[in-house]
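A protein record pairs a chain with a discrete description of its three-dimensional fold. The following entry can be read in just this way.
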Amino acid sequence: MAQQVGSTSGTASTSRETEVTPGGASGITEVERPESADLEPTGLTADMGSLNSADGAAGSGSANSADGKAGRVRNWLRRTPQATTDAVPVAPSVIAAGPELDLASNDPLIAYLLGAASAVDITRLEMLSPALDALQAAGVVLVVPLISSGSLVGLLSLGPRRSERGYSTDDLRLLNSLAGYAAPAMRVGQLVRQQQAEARQRERIDQELKIAQLIQQQFLPKSLPDLPSWHVAAFYRPARTVGGDFYDFIPLPDGRIMFVVGDVTDKGVPAALVMASTHSLLRDAAPRLISPGKVLGHVNDMLCVDIPAHMFVTCLALVLDPVSGEVEFANAGHDVPYVRTQAGVQELRARGMPLGLMPGMLYEEMQFQFEPGDCALLHSDGLAEAHAPDREMFGFPRVAELVGKGPSGEALIDLCLTELGNFTGPDHEQEDDITLVSLQRSPSAWHHGREP
């Protein structure tokens, strides 16, 4: 037989009729915890149901004491009419939930209840508390705080008894005992819901990052340029799901092609957004302005208007004439490319400020002649500025040394990545995005001047 949880007052030998109460002002009010480490109450509440009183209390909870259990069962049996076989079952009464309560984290009622740490009669309690006003307006006379680990996690609110008698000492003792069991269980439920919400939030973020990664991949070249007597290879690996590095091959109207390698400060989503904007500006300006210095100057002026504070973009723009092997290049603060020639490894240096820092900047243009067999490596700082476990930096001299060792194309990129892995160790977490572009003129290519 299901037993309704009730409350008792008086001595154990006293028996009372069980009274069904409306329960409109009674119930368990749960104080939701914020999804943060300090777990302070936010005041967001949810009704958890109500408990009826065995003495006619609207929503009080109680259990029988051990020394009066047998007598009460006997008295209950004497009061219960003999059931007949044709009796119609009576549906259980519907218990109304307690009042909805918006308990703000700074409400003075919280501090009062934490200080009391037991059942509190609020009929004559006065303080500037919206929650207290709401409870009193709902007819609540007794509030039992549910406290777990020193924090208020809920309230057990009870209305007046229908018998018009106050709550006895035994009632209060029973309610306080009930609160001691209910509070930890409610806290566990809150933590479970919080963890579930955090897990759902992480899943949403992961899904959004995967979509952002797919979008960013659309900005990268889908194929390498097919240039007679030239070999091009490229590699890109972000430090996170999305990154701020980019590279591109932009065809120009005069038959030349612009190689672009860039790096946005920071990593992750902010860098990816700035990268997308910079890439679009370069794509728009290159076919119109052609000159690498003018392209960088135009993109710089456009970025200075909208780029977030403390962010900028380094970028190298190199225009290649695939017929003659001549290149014009400008550099906006990006890592210097290395070229392996018959005379050794050379640097392609040109002066220029990073994009997005100051408007009106001029970018120096320089020229270089690729001879048959020459190989260049365009790279971002994710390679040179990687660190070993002892915090030693991989360094630009190592990059130049790798370029001078002889391999070209994919072999050169593989060599760089292999040496980087050996340097940083197997448990290394990539610190920054890595972009590598290798450009080699075939050793069998003949040098022809470009026809006017």
